[in-house]
Specification:
Blueprint: E1 4-5, H1 11-18, H2 27-33, H3 35-48, E2 52-54, H4 62-65, H5 74-92, E3 96-101, H6 116-130, E4 136-142, H7 145-154, E5 162-166, H8 188-191, E6 196-200, H9 204-214, E7 220-225, H10 253-265, E8 270-273, H11 279-289
Parallel strand pairs: 1-8, 2-3, 3-4, 4-5, 5-6, 6-7, 7-8
Helix pairs in contact: 1-2, 2-3, 3-5, 3-11, 6-7, 9-10, 10-11
Amino acid sequence: MTITLLDGGMGQELLARTGATPTGLWSTQAMIDHPDAVRSIHDDYFAAGADIATTNTYAIHRDRLDPAGIGDRFGALHQQAVGLATAAKSAAGNGQVAGSLGPLGWSYMAELAPPSEDAAPLYAEIVALHDADVDLFILETMCSVDQARGGLMGCADTDKPVWLALSVDDDDGTRLRSGEPLTDALPLLKDFDVAALLINCSTPEAVSQGLPLIADANVAFGAYANGFSSISDSFKTAGATTDRLEKRRDLGPTEYADFADQWVEQGASIVGGCCEVGPAHIAEMATRLGKRKT
């Protein structure tokens, strides 16, 4: 079985490299202030052995830009982020670019997201901006069935593969963060043309719980976990910044790669990392997969 190796997290890696203060704009503000850092991180992931560069567009939504007074830069910021990823791909001489479609409302709080019918045109606007330049789309950190549905509806007009990444409860990986059973999302695969189903931005332990429930979904499946201790209640408010979250100290490259090995043994064909998982983690995974570049 061929394993596709995703990159790792972008936002937390940007904060670590630039020393920037977290804001509600998160990785978008870091890109505005330090675009070269975004390109450098993409380059480092490809050098570590990643097959895919995920665009730094997770948080480029109007519901974040407008309150900050920069809604007029929506299109330009998407174009900048896609351009940085495609330039890194060209420099690497291989790989693919995934257009990131992050959650509307706020991360981990599906109750703040608009209904799927309202979300669909907002995602479609982003898909249209990315479509000519990316190789695939990935809906990231979808925390409820309706949130995932809205994202998939917004991808209706693209011919590019669409991957769906669901985020599960850190204490019970059999449930979405909304509390719905993870399996309640599986009918979406019949309603939409989903090329791959993943679990993302949850603890590795929760991911390992959830993977068996999606293993028989008849599409490629996989996972990319985060390196936070958990998503604290203090973070579950609109506008919260990531300095409220605690980085785990027991999840270095070796420990994280051990989890990824388990996922591959469970049948996962796509693995990578999310927040607090950096190039060193991806390099260790690539080494074990026999893919690290020299």
